[in-house]
Amino acid sequence: xxxxxxxxxxxxxxxxxxxxxxxxxxxxxxxxxxxxxxxxxxxxxxxxxxxxxxxxxxxxxxxxxxxxxxxxxxxxxxxxxxxxxxxxxxxxxxxxxxxxxxxxxxxxxxxxxxxxxxxxxxxxxxxxxxxxxxxxxxxxxxxxxxxxxxxxxxxxxxxxxxxxxxxxxxxxxxxxxxxxxxxxxxxxxxxxxxxxxxxxxxxxxxxxxxxxxxxxxxxxxxxxxxxxxxxxxxxxxxxxxxxx
Length: 244
Ligand code: APR
Fold this sequence. Notes:
It is a single chain. By secondary structure, the chain is α/β, with parallel strands linked by helices. The chain has two domains: 1-31 and 79-119 and 165-244, Rossmann fold (3-Layer(aba) Sandwich), CATH 3.40.50.1220; 33-76 and 124-158, 2-Layer Sandwich (SIR2/SIRT2 'Small Domain'), CATH 3.30.1600. The protein is built from ten helices and nine strands. It has helices at residues 5-13, 24-27, 47-50, 53-58, 60-76, 81-92, 106-109, 167-175, 197-204, 231-243, and strands at 17-21, 96-100, 116-117, 120-127, 133-134, 154-158, 182-186, 209-212, 225-227. Strand 4 (120-127) and strand 5 form a beta hairpin. Bound molecules: adenosine-5-diphosphoribose. Adenosine-5-diphosphoribose is lined by residues 22-25, 27-28, 33-35, 101, 119, 187-189, 192, 212-215, 217, 230-232. The site of adenosine-5-diphosphoribose has 23 residues, from helix 2 and helix 10.
């Protein structure tokens, strides 16, 4: 796989690389992207209607069981060559900031550190009423389980549509946006805000933006480099090209 020489040189001389990833980088690990059809029992539901505070209030059992199903899917998934290549890239460059919209924890499993999880993490649960993290609780057979401190429902520690992102995660992602030498957007449809604005901010700051996606997105035509293909293939090839 050939890459533009200028892209290779920009990466080789970069002091600070930013990476934004979306569900696409976990697709090759068998984790369905957010907008592809769901399977089995959940095929009848639209994720964007389940991943909301309103849906949980209307039917807490249904939403909790949907996340339990996704947690089970994710628990069987392994990092793919795309995740592993990003963890390796971080070891080769002076500084790399990895921002993910994914809640599957696969970047961390691949060895990436200080991952900024814009949308939380499906493996964590928290109190619905008071928002504090809950690590252990008594299994009473109630679904959803209850908070041991206040008896409220537990909920997944993920950001639902309409909810604000974890302030610190977003602040870090935005404030460092001006200090990057190159910005990669990988496996994201680039439509959900505020994550979708991060590459736009990079473009406004004249920072080269690289998109890796087998499909075009609303961002593609604005990118300096649009690498069409699978993250699990392009990223290892890019790493090899840096060696030369
Ligand atoms: N390599 C790279 N990109 C891929 C691959 C792959 N192997 N497979 C699919 N893609 C691309 C798709 O073409 C699509 O553009 O990944 C993107 C996945 O888009 P979405 O399913 O919209 O996922 P994402 O962009 O992460 O969604 C953003 O929206 O639904 C909410 O909170 C949810 O975090 C999610 C956010």
